Amino acid sequence: MMSTNKILIAYGSRYGSTAEISEKISIILKELNIESVVLDLKKIKEKHWPSIDEFDAILVGSGIKMGRWMKEPQKLLKKNKDKIKNKEKILGLFVSCSTVLDDPVKAKNEYLDKIMDKLKFKADMFDAFGPVFDFSETSKLGYLTKKLSIAGLNDSGNIEFDPNARNDLRDWDQIRSFAEKFAELIK
């Protein structure tokens, strides 16, 4: 039996890591009898985005590149900031970024606290998850991005990775815990 609670999971993903996290959270919520709609904000034009009024809660995720959130998740948050500020909707935020690997606290401060300060609201829950570095032949990363990423990982020295493979550096237990705690907020 499905609950009457319905969550919008809206995200912007550059290379697929945030998309995979969003899909996994949706699966976990379904296991907990919570309906969710997963929305790729880059693929769907803004005029076709559903109204957040249709949902009990919203969860917004973004990939981080060059120190920035993607523009589509920011646009969704800005468009709905009054409803979020007034606590009309339960809000969760997450990012997928490499900063987590060296300093998880910095990742939260740089990419979550700053967006909330900028938009003048506070999410009910937020977290930062690790990235995927795909250096395989089928990778969507360009040659220069691959080379720069590999050089950066080599410089950090504390991350084991394969320079010819897909390296999933996300903590799936952390993601599951986040989804379960978010579900508790709306039940």
Produce the secondary structure layout.
Layout: E1 6-12, H1 17-31, E2 35-40, E3 57-65, E4 68-69, H2 71-79, H3 81-85, E5 90-96, H4 99-102, H5 104-119, E6 125-129, E7 132-134, H6 143-156, E8 166-168, H7 172-186
Could you walk me through the main structural features you see in this protein, from its secondary elements to its overall organization?
With 187 residues, the chain is α/β, with parallel strands linked by helices. It folds into 2 domains: 6-131 and 170-186, Rossmann fold, CATH 3.40.50.360; 134-168. The protein is 42% helix and 22% strand. It has 7 helices and 8 strands. Strands 1, 2, 3, 4, 5 and 6 form a 6-stranded mixed sheet that branches. Strand 1, helix 1 (17-31) and strand 2 form a beta-alpha-beta unit. The mean pLDDT is 91.
List keywords for this structure.
42% helix, six-stranded mixed β-sheet, 7 helices, single chain, 187 residues, 2 domains, alpha/beta, Rossmann fold, two-stranded antiparallel sheet
Structure summary:
This protein has 187 residues and is an alpha/beta fold.
Q: What count of helical segments does DSSP give?
A: 7
Distance between the termini: 14 Å
Would you identify the CATH architecture of the largest domain?
Answer: 3-Layer(aba) Sandwich
Overall domain count? 2
CATH superfamily of the largest domain: Flavodoxin domain
The structural class is alpha/beta
What's the main sheet like?
6 strands, mixed
How many individual β-strands? Answer: 8
Oligomer description: single chain
